[in-house]
Here is the input.
Amino acid sequence: MTLKDKTFSQACENNKAAIFNLLAPLLQSKTDLLEIGSGTGQHAVWFAPQLPHLVWQTSDLSENHAGILRWISDYPADNLRPPIALDVAGGQWPAASFDAIYTANTAHIMAWHEVQAMFSNIASSLRSDGIFCLYGPLKYDGEFTSESNRLFDLQLRAQVPHRGIREFHAVNQLALDGALILLDDHAMPANNRLLIWQKV
Here is the structure.
């Protein structure tokens, strides 16, 4: 893999196979997916070619587009779309609707009002029976799932006070408010979770 001039996330390389193994069966009947916060673009360029029936739409803040485009340029796929500008709380969401939405490692770096806005807009952008998949660390009933997650949460809050690992029940309530019903809560490597909701 050529990494020259590209942003790189070791976490993306480490978790992509585990995430894909769970996502792939769910996406077999889907036709278009919006990825919120594509980051480096590594997940998109690895997932999309293995799901050729599915249009994978990347998105992120404008300042992250150059890095995503470098990955897409080196690993193009017919069903992979260049990033659109998306600020979950302060910008215009795509006019199109989707039957799948995916985001990884975003909720703990957003402010809580941005997480709320994300779920509200997902509820509007997701078609009936569509699925929303969220990957990342969570806590349950105020308890972290590992000591490493507790330390990670402290590190996040020291960097920017509004960041932090989110409470599952609070996040799931946002989903319920948007008519999203939890299908699965998967334990993942490195003390992360993969949550799957479906719009009713």
